[in-house]
Amino acid sequence: MTRYLPYGDMEKLLSLSKRRGFVFQSSEIYGGLSSTWDYGPLGVELKRNVKEAWWKSVVVSREDVVGLDAAILMQRQVWEASGHLENFSDPLVECKNCHIRLREDQLETDVCPECSGELTEPRNFNLMFKTFQGPVEETASEIFLRPETAQGIFVNFNNVLNSSRKKLPFGIAQIGKSFRNEITPGNFTFRTREFEQMEIEFFVTPGDDDEWLQSWLKERYDWYLKYGIREDNLRIRKHDDSELAHYAKETYDIEYRFPWGWGELEGIANRTDFDLKQHAQTSGTDISYFDEATKSRFVPYVIEPSGGVDRATLAFWLDAYDEEPDGDSSRTVLKFHRLLAPVTVAILPLSKNEKLAPLTKGILDRLKFKFKCQYDDSQSIGRRYRRQDEIGTPFCVTIDFDSLEDDKVTIRERDSMHQSRIPISDLVSVLEDKLEHNW
Ligand code: GAP
């Protein structure tokens, strides 16, 4: 079934976002900073879960990938070597009438789309954010906020190789903030100037690169499906030669059908030996690999699956959104994958009656170190179920007066709304089982 939010309905998601605490406008009380967003109490849990699912899938569950957390600030020469100072730019045009600035490569007309005014000739606008290290604002102390996390991996290639004693093929994975002074940010958290990336640089023997590119493409595509994106809303698109980044031999994008159209979630690129060679040359350091089996030394090729945390989070969220008939009315439900949901278990005493309090507290204390829990005792149980549906909580545990007699509670499942009564002593294992196996 194709189910995705039509553009008009983004309003519903944005309203839910603000009302329930997923994402807020940055610096809102000062009028907001354009295209900059803060993740609220639910948004931060969702985003952490997305990153955790990625890390588990590409680092924890694999023996050929290790992690890294490199600094955002790096030597200026890194960006000279990588080609970003020279090539990391978009063609900028300005309207001579209303002075709006636009990306020439995204325009469908040769006049201003806002006022039909004449446009200036395009000039290359470098997307790197500049700042100064230390107290003196002079060219010598000029540095950049990284526009991709990848370079932190390349410049640490020798360190990781020597300390982890990995053999090819192996990868280094990293999650972290990147910054780009985008000319036209927009579409909520889709294109922003500050964002998070989750990137892997997977080093292979030259000649094995084409096969590894296809293998990572499949692995990463399947990951989005596994965590809940509908197949109809996901596609793979190959870059044509004119689109390829300055370092890439071949690239595929995994795209999601956003309400405004198809947009990139992740790029999987064959970066060849471009980066390692550039850094070796610029730094004067030998960056190469000695293959014991063939007794040969060479510079590895790199396959790079590079995804955006914010885009993946938004896609999982959009794809989870649903409105279903429920009796005479309807319910809004976020059908998050159970491991991505910001709250896993809601603890709901049937009433605020103090007789239920000690048992409820005991259950909350038992569950809260195992699962992300939320306690709620206000309003009717039906309304509380709806509130949990709306934020995508997969399980509600209801404690009622019978619980005091039979030591049992009710588990209510979000999607089927099925309810089952189970002994309190089995609660943790039943929930763990449901989380692991999705019964
Ligand atoms: N190291 C390769 C690289 O950075 P990219 O295609 O420019 O490749 C990778 O970026 C991913 O980072 C994109 O697929 C997207 O998910 C995310 N991304 C890039 N620019 C972004 C922006 N301005 N806002 C949000 N996410 C962005």
What does this structure look like?
The radius of gyration is 25 Å and the shape is globular. It has 439 residues and is of the alpha+beta class. The protein is built from 13 helices and 24 strands. The model has no long low-confidence stretch (mean pLDDT 95).
Features:
single chain, 7-stranded mixed beta sheet, 31% helix, binds glycyl-adenosine-5'-phosphate, alpha+beta, 5-stranded mixed beta sheet, 13 helices
Task: Describe the structure concisely for a colleague.
The protein contains 13 helices and 24 strands. It has 439 residues and is α+β, with helices and mostly antiparallel strands.
SSE blueprint:
Blueprint: H1 10-20, E1 23-25, E2 37-39, H2 41-60, E3 65-67, E4 73-74, H3 76-82, H4 84-87, E5 89-94, E6 101-103, E7 123-126, E8 129-132, E9 142-145, H5 150-154, H6 157-164, E10 170-179, E11 194-204, H7 209-226, E12 234-238, E13 250-258, E14 261-272, H8 274-283, E15 289-291, E16 296-298, E17 301-308, H9 309-320, E18 321-326, E19 329-334, E20 345-349, H10 357-367, E21 373-375, H11 381-391, E22 395-399, H12 401-406, E23 408-413, E24 419-423, H13 427-437
Parallel strand pairs: 3-10, 20-21, 20-22
Antiparallel strand pairs: 1-2, 4-9, 5-6, 5-7, 8-9, 10-11, 11-17, 12-13, 13-14, 14-17, 15-16, 18-19, 22-23, 23-24
Helix pairs in contact: 2-9, 3-8
This protein binds glycyl-adenosine-5'-phosphate (GAP).
Strand proportion, as a percent range, falls in: 25-35%
Helical amount: 25-40%
The strands making up the biggest β-sheet line up spatially as 3-10-11-17-14-13-12
Q: What is the overall number of helices?
A: 13
What small-molecule ligands were found? glycyl-adenosine-5'-phosphate
| CA-atom Rg in angstroms | 25 Å
